[in-house]
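Ticket closed. Logging final result for Transcriptional regulator, LysR family.
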Amino acid sequence: MDRFDAMQAFVRVVETGSFTKAAETLHMSKTTVTQLVQQLETRLRVKLLNRTTRKVNVTADGLAYYERALRLLADLDDAETSLSSASAAPRGRLRVDVPSPLARHIIVPALPDFLARYPDIQLHLGVSDRPVDIIGENVDCVVRGGELADLSLMARRVADLELGVYAAPAYLAHAGRPAHPRDLEGTHHRVVGFLWARTGKALPYAMHRGDESVHVQGRYALAVDDGNAYLEAGLAGLGMLWLPEYMARGPLSRGELVRIFEDWQQEPMPLYVAFPPNRHVNAKLRVFIDWVVALMAGQAPPAARAG
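Final structure:
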């Protein structure tokens, strides 16, 4: 039995709650993972996991061993990355998931710089607006806008995204320019609805001007759950949009969008990099997070300068 492989297999089973999922993330067969955990239990002479047909639960002894195993695996990673060559050149596979508009407009265009700096990192980039099971899918980190729903995650706030309301000239030519945000609740105007992944619903937006505050959701004929589709629907004149500045910048400069309610403000949308609390922040994850922070500093104003 390879003790390192057995320890790693056990940790992944605990984190995913499944031998099958652990095998998938480790690129092993389920049989191999099962055998490694069984051999580990035999060696330690304790039961680490309780198995049923539906789920796997960690025992009290298993939980104590899991916590120590995490520290040992982290120490091993530190020992490897502390070598000068490893510290100078982070290497290995890095799994990241980012929202589709951020990938399209900011992350992917800037990736040649990141990969030139760190040629030994193999980046697996998931592009989606869906919730991601970071542990179950063995993702190293996610980049997400809005307040985080899972408070158990570790997170670093990397930007504050300025929001505005926009419409295509074709929409305004047809429907006219609304004078007040409440006009969007009437029958004459339409917005494009965005279905937030956490709720599956379109949520209202808080706007304020001086002492006046309103919450506006608007009426929509179309709601989508993808940021790029949301933007395209607005460009097609299907309704008004709430957009972060980085998404509106290009269409605004080309005359494809017009900003509405410029005298109204909204709270900036926070942008986070989040990762599991028990996941060691190794060299490759650390340099990616620092790169995203620096990248967003040039793309979005921090809260102190926003508004």
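The chain is about 40% helix and 25% strand. No further action required.
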